[in-house]
Fold each of these.
Amino acid sequence: MFDTGNIFEAHSVKEAIELLRSNPGAKLICGGTDVLIQVREGRLAGVDLVSIHQLPELTGVTMEADGTIVIGPATSFTHLAKDPLIKKHLPFLGQAVELVGGPQVRNVGTIGGNVCNGATSADSASTLFALNAKLRIANSRGERVVPIQEFYLGPGKVALGQDDILTAILISREDYEGFGGYYIKYAMRKAMDIATLGCVVLCKVKDKKILEDVRLAFGVAAPTPIRVPAAEAVAKGQVFSEELVEQFGKAALTEVNPRTSWRASREFRLQLVEELSKRALRQAFSNAGGEC
Ligand SMILES: Cc1cc2nc3c(=O)[nH]c(=O)nc-3n(C[C@H](O)[C@H](O)[C@H](O)COP(=O)(O)OP(=O)(O)OC[C@H]3O[C@@H](n4cnc5c(N)ncnc54)[C@H](O)[C@@H]3O)c2cc1C
């Protein structure tokens, strides 16, 4: 049994906002794979819940006229990985979310919950950083759009107020068109485990050998997911080579700040930062049409 208070089921975003506003202690719940763990552990014991589970206006993936891909935050990982728009334009995001938990968690857990829980280990977050994702947030006073880099404030802390609801994850055409990518999750087990380190590289390749654009992002390499502009600058505009891959791996170390935890030491994570960025660059280059 879960020790919850009232459970309110919202039938629209507007109603969910009103329920959160009029119940100041209430917590938003979508798939519940994070929230219900906290209820069971006692951290949220007795809490009132406002559910947006499977609200149609928050679920699914669409494309706007200008090519912006709009991901509904209540879209489950299973849905996302199979979605035709994701498969065609953002296959590396589908690949990343297929590494979350196991099938049961992926059937219920959502990309919005993954971002809003503020965890640096969230498997979708580093790829969304590399994609320069923007987050549309609604509340009783209106709507705002926040770059994902500004949304993460610290470990488990995001820029959401009591009646704020993430209503869309937006990916602009210029941030995905022509890009290939690859996400590597290093964990102790192959499934049902949180990332010890997550690393994604996205790149655009010209004439099969020049890295026209390169993006590198990590989870668990700092208190929040991060981009590594110094490494991106080393590779951008360069002809792909093994020498460049080595330089890229070294440059990746310059802007990370991993910690020691029971999962791994800081030193081991630093080794992963260098090695995984090299492996992810090689695979992303190939996925983007590069040839050695
Ligand atoms: C067994 C198990 C294994 C797991 N393995 C992984 C893993 O490998 N990788 C990984 O990244 N995660 C993992 N998780 C964590 C979890 O499944 C994910 O973080 C998931 O994405 C959470 O989504 P949810 O819809 O269940 O979130 P919920 O639990 O419903 O909500 C999570 C948080 O986000 C807020 N929230 C949800 N939706 C919105 C919204 N639209 N607007 C504003 N706030 C919102 C909630 O208030 C809450 O604070 C695992 C969890 C379990 C139980």
Amino acid sequence: MELGLKGKNVVVTGGGTNIGRAIVLAFAAEGCNLAIAELNRKAGEKVAGEVSAMPGGASATVIDADVTDMGKTDAMMAEAIDRLGSVDVLVNNVGWTIDRLFTEKSREEHIREVDVNLWGAVNCINAVLPHMIERQTGAIVSISSDAGRIGEYREAVYSACKAGVIALSKSIARETGRYGLRLNMVCPGLVVPPPGEVSNPDSMWAQGMEALFTDDVLERVRRAYPLRRMGTAQEVANAVVFLASDAASFITGQTLSVSGGYTMM
Ligand SMILES: NC(=O)c1ccc[n+]([C@@H]2O[C@H](COP(=O)([O-])OP(=O)(O)OC[C@H]3O[C@@H](n4cnc5c(N)ncnc54)[C@H](O)[C@@H]3O)[C@@H](O)[C@H]2O)c1
């Protein structure tokens, strides 16, 4: 299958860790030019280094980003367009949560979930849309979550935001399809980074989340998935690359779960 991605310019938010890192490397394997939009420059630079060591002519540049801030996000996207020449693909990957009951979370934690997961997607889409409409082409893939499809225990506001990302993208897909723009969503299952792998303090896994997923918990998660195993960041990235590619040229407004059959919608 011809993906038609070689030489395409791709912005991945939060591309420095876990799923975002795998997405960057998957586009790099297709010969894309990447901008890694990161709050944590060090994490972004590590992944950019991995890209430059790959064969096939891909490149990666790191741009400082805070997707919760509209002004900074506009500046990040302007910088990406300047450095890459254009933006063909935006991947809204940044997300944040802490696993706790609704009543046990603080107001500040709820606000942070809305800021990062919902405002982050709004800001990034808003920043790139005029450019894509002017060029009459563009693909946006947003990382949502199965939590946003079914509502997840201990993830109430996060689930609401991830559902919001799906509805936001579908609405904009309806408004901008006439300009050749496509917006789709990928919902990963649980992808826990290997123990000790997260050195980025800005990753949600750096706040003790890893410790919540003991062998016993992971076994229960596996049993909840019809495919009876955990997924990988690479498997999520494969779906993102497909939806961003020419191979998905007649697909827009769709939500694809990559979660071993956990949700079937
Ligand atoms: N890992 C999972 O189990 C899982 C499951 C379902 C959905 N998701 C979603 O997948 C996406 C990636 O998850 P992950 O586990 O790789 O996350 P992560 O927390 O490990 O990585 C997020 C990356 O984004 C960067 N970042 C954080 N805040 C930022 C900001 N304001 N501006 C710019 N960059 C920022 C961090 O530095 C980090 O590199 C998220 O949207 C998450 O909600 C993850």
